[in-house]
Design brief:
This protein has about 280 residues and is mainly alpha-helical. The protein is built from 15 helices and no strands. About 75% of the residues lie in helices and about 0% in strands. Helix 7 crosses helix 15, helix 12 crosses helix 13 and helix 13 packs across helix 14.
Length: about 280
């Protein structure tokens, strides 16, 4: 029988309804099932990063997941950034917004994890199958962890605003050129850049430690949010060099991809999303 999705509105409503049902169930399980053994992590090598990237590239070519991100992510991010650029009072937050987008990467990549999981299992792996994660019984726990990252992103944006207010602010810059000149040539601008980079690195480190494998684990296994986060933190503690290198690679790739009018994100986001699934499979027994 041919596989169809029917009317898009009814399909979306049906999936959102299922997601709401599973969210309620997941909320009851957030404390975790103490009878389930804690997942075991592996000792990682730098070669595991290369393996994950190659496997992610293979999934990208096979699944055409560029379509998924072209339709869902790229226009949204582009409109948000353009909206910020049109308001001078929010201009100082433009760069923190672009850099902070990496904090939400694991949430945006959940559908890609599902595509890689299905392809690994020999099942169909189109972007429609990726969206089918909305109907997964594990989606509620994934959503809860996603809300945590959204809160972390909001905290970073408020902190970046505060740093600007204490250095070059609180008044809005007169123009984009004046703002860039102040950042590059004044002590207050240098202080803002150094403080923003240091604090931003702390936010990025916290996000990496708690989410490096937790999102794909919630999709792959029937574990609670605390167990997934604890496993992610333990993996980083036991493999700091590899995990920090993986996080730095993701941050650098997303930053470079955002430079040419965000066009690079059409390829970089799907490849990194697929690769993150394979990094999880290499990292957790």
């Amino acid at each position: 029988m041919a596989h169809t999705i029917g009317n898009p509105l009814s399909w979306t409503a049906r999936n959102l309804g299922a997601a709401g049902h599973y969210l309620g169930e997941a909320t009851e399980r957030l404390g975790g099932d103490h009878t389930v053994a804690m997942p075991q992590t592996r000792r990682l090598e730098m070669a595991d990063i290369g393996h994950a990237l190659r496997a992610g590239w293979g999934d990208f070519l096979a699944g055409r997941s560029d379509v998924m991100f072209l339709v869902l992510v790229y226009p949204v991010v582009g409109l948000v950034l353009m909206g910020f650029a049109l308001h001078m009072q929010l201009l100082p937050l433009l760069l923190p917004l672009v850099m902070g987008f990496a904090l939400l990467g694991p949430v945006a990549a959940v559908g890609l994890y599902e595509m890689s999981r299905r392809r690994e299992a020999g099942q169909t792996a189109s972007w429609i199958d990726g969206l089918g994660v909305l109907r997964s019984p594990r989606f509620g726990a994934i959503l809860v962890l996603g809300l945590y990252l959204a809160g972390l992103f909001l905290g970073w944006m408020l902190t970046a605003r505060g740093i600007y207010a204490l250095t070059l602010g609180p008044a809005a810059p007169a123009s984009a050129s004046a703002f860039l000149r102040d950042v590059a040539t004044t002590p207050a601008g240098w202080l803002m850049a150094v403080a923003g980079s240091a604090v931003g690195a702390c936010f990025a480190l916290l996000a990496l430690a708690t989410s490096v494998v937790s999102f794909p684990m919630l999709l792959d296994r029937n574990v609670s949010v605390p167990v997934a986060v604890a496993t992610s933190v333990r993996l980083m503690r036991e493999n700091p060099r590899v995990v920090l290198s993986w996080g730095a690679l993701i941050g650098a790739a997303l930053s470079l991809a955002a430079i040419p009018l965000l066009l690079g994100l059409v390829i970089v986001l799907p490849v990194l999303g697929h690769a993150s699934w394979h990094f999880y499979r290499r990292a957790v027994v």
